[in-house]
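Researcher: I'd like a structural prediction for the single chain below. Treat it as a standalone chain; there are no partners to consider.
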Amino acid sequence: MNVVPKDFIRVMPDTMQDFISEAFQKAGTTAEDAAHIAHLLVLTDLRGVFSHGTRQTPGYIGMMLDGKVNPRPNVRCIDESPTTAVYDGDGGMGHFASYHAAKAAVKKAKEMGLGAATSRNHFHFGSAGKYTRLALEVDCAGFAVSCHRFRHSPDGMIATATGASPMSFAIPAGNQPPIVVDMATGIYGSLQFEQSPASFFKMLGLSHVSHALGGFMAGIWLFDKPPDPPTIWEGANQGAFIAAIDISQFRPIDEYKAEIDQHIHDARQMKPAPGYDRSDLPGGLEWEREQEWAEIGIPVGEAHQEQLKTVAERVGIPLPF
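Model: Treating it as a single chain, here is the predicted structure.
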C-alpha cells in the first residue's frame, strides 16, 4: 500500500490540504481542527505513507457523520507534573489529543531534559511518525506508541495477539536525513511462524510494549462502556504514549549530530539489500519524498482517487483533480 503506484496523477499539497480541510468542516469540525488534521494527513502523504494519509479520510469522516467520533472535541490536559502530562481527547480524533500530548512532551523535555505524555479517549491517531518528528524540530529524540481497546479470544491463536499497534522512534541528525522508524508492530500474511520464529517473538514483544504504554498506561479501558450517556463515544477506543529526550543533556548536540551524520553516511554507502537499488536507514526515503513531492505534487493512484471521490460525494464538495 505504501509503494508509489504505477498509474497516478499528481495533486499539489496545498490543493489536497484545502480539499481535506473542507471535507472535515462539512463533517462538523471547526475550521482550525479541520486545517490541523488536513495538514497532518497531507504530510503523511508527502512521505509516501499512503496507508495513513488522506486515504484514511473516508473512514474518519464516516465515523464523525455516523456519530461514533466527536467532531468537536474539547481536548484537555487533566493531569500534569514537571515532566509528564495526561490528555483527554473527549471522543475525538487522536490527531488532536495525541498532537497536544506530543507538543507537551517536547516542551517538557526542553525544560527538564525528559518529557512524556499520554492521550486517551480518542479515535485513531494515524501515522506514529508525525508525533516523534516534533521532537526532531528541537534536537530531541522521540518515541511514540499507540493501542486500541480489544480483548484476546481464547479461541484465537497467539499470532493474532499483536493488534498491529504502531510504534515510532525519531533520532535527529545534522546534514543527513534523520533516522525515523515508523511502523506497525504486527506482521500478517507473509510471516509463517515455522519460517521465522525469532521475527514472530520480536513482533509479539514490540506489540505488547505498545499495548502496555499506549493502551493500559494511557487509560483506554476507562471508556469501555456502551455509548450511553452520549458523552462516551463508541469510536474513542484508543490511546497513546509519547516521550521526548533532550540529547543536549547528555552530549553536546553538535558533536552528537556530527557522529550521527557520519553513521548515516556510512550506512548509505553500503551495498543495497537484495532486490533494492539503494541503501538507506529508516526515514531517509520519506525525507527525500517530502522534499521532492512538496514541489511536484503527491502521486495519487487510482484506488486513492476513488477514496477521495467517496469523500467528495458524501459531503458534497468538488474533487481536487
